[in-house]
Specification:
It contains two helices and two strands. It is mainly alpha-helical and 51 residues long. It has one domain.
Length: 51
């Protein structure tokens, strides 16, 4: 699906302790906006500090 973080990112985040961690989203291409991916991660990990 376009505009969201790749599954490999979610697999990684599922396996680590996000307590007191800050996650900063970034992209390596300017083809799609970053906002939808960041919002999707915030919904998936509501207890994480995602910027």
């Amino acid at each position: 699906m376009e505009g969201i973080a790749p599954n490999v990112v979610k697999t990684f985040l599922d396996q680590i302790d996000l307590t007191n961690k800050k996650i900063i989203t970034f992209c390596t291409s300017g083809g799609l906006p970053l906002g939808p991916a960041t919002e999707d991660l915030r919904k998936t990990y509501p207890n994480a500090n995602i910027t």
